[in-house]
Amino acid sequence: MQEPDSHSVDEDARGGPRPSAAEFLRANHDALLTDWQQAVFEHLGRTDSARPPWLIDHMPELLTALADAMELGPEALDERLEAAHAAARLDAGFNLGEVAQEYALLRRCILHRLEAREQRLRPGDLTRLEETLDRVVTRTMTFFWDMKQRILQTLDRMSEATLDDPDMETLLERLLTRLMESALTVDTAAVMLLEDDALVVRASVGLSTDEVKGLRVPVGQGVSGLAALERRPFFVRSAATDPRVLFGPLRRAGLRALYGLPLMDGERLLGMAYMGSRTAFAFSDADVLLFHAVAERSSAHIAQTELHAREHEARQEAERSLALLDSLLEAAPVGIAFLDPELRYLRINGTLARLNNKPVEDHRGRTLHEMVRIGAVAPIERALRQVLDTGRPVQDVLLEGPDPVRGRAGIWRADYFPVRTSDGVLLGVGSTVVDITDHKRAETALQQAIDFREELIAVLGHDLRNPLHAVNASAFMLGKVPALDTTARRSVDRIRKATARMTRMINDILDFARSRLGGGIPVTRQHVNMEELCQGMLEELQVVYPERPLVLEVHGDDLWGDWDPDRVTQVLGNLVVNALQHAKSDTPVVTTLTSEAKDVVMRVCNEGDPIPPELLPHLFDPFKQSSVPKAGNKHRSLGLGLYIVSEIVQVHRGSVRVETAAGDGTAFTVRWPRIPPPLGYLTP
Question: Fewer Cβ within 10 Å of end Cβ, the chain: N or C?
Answer without folding.
Answer: C
